[in-house]
Amino acid sequence: MSAQIFPRNANAIFLASLFGLVMLVVGIVAAMVGFYLSPWYTDVGIAPAQPVPFSHKHHVSELKIDCRYCHATVEKAATAGFPATETCMSCHSQVWTTSPLLEVVRTSYQTGEPVVWNRIYDLPDFVYFNHSVHVAKGIGCSSCHGRIDQQQLAAKAQPLYMGWCLGCHRAPEDYIRPREEVFNMEWDVNALSLAQRQQLVIEYQIPTDGRLTNCFVCHR
């Protein structure tokens, strides 16, 4: 009779070790997914430092300044555009003329050097996005930027993952609004029935045959 090579509890030790290894892998994967979806990775809700502490809440909600006054190219170009210093000074040559918070703006105006803002939404080079197309098709500012009119300091509202973008491309009727409401931050999609929104999709000639989910639409 051959001698016992492994101890009697070897099987139990092996199974426990295997279970522990599986749980370790699951834990690592869960931690990675959690980090990938967290604000530490997506920057959602985090306002980056800016050369001027510009408040959208003050300018949009309180002063009722239209988005297009500062983002002048949003209806006609791929980018919404940062406001020129001259735009800022059209008001601040008269108000807050000595505020230290606006020293950067005054210096920019005097020297001609533009203010260097830190981007909040910075898409990768392999992603194509056109603001003017989305505005023309009835997609409102708040659909992507959230209630930026309520933010003291601008922060990212959406992670901009591909799946999030595809959600709108697959069902534009869930997000579309009349063109005249695009810049209305308080617009509620339920203000129109589903049938009315579907009619807007037809009226604005938005493809519903799957073309909007083709790779080349965003990756060119």
From TrEMBL:
Matching entries from InterPro entries are given as: Multihaem_cyt_sf (IPR036280)
Residue ranges spanning the membrane: these are 12-37
What Gene3D superfamilies does its record include? Cytochrome C3
Q: Which keywords fit this entry according to its UniProt record?
A: Membrane, Transmembrane, Transmembrane helix
Highest taxon of source = Bacteria
PANTHER family listed in its UniProt record: CYTOCHROME C7-LIKE DOMAIN-CONTAINING PROTEIN (PTHR39425:SF1), LIPOPROTEIN CYTOCHROME C (PTHR39425)
Protein name from the UniProt record: Cytochrome C
User: Which organism is this entry from?
Assistant: Chloroflexus islandicus
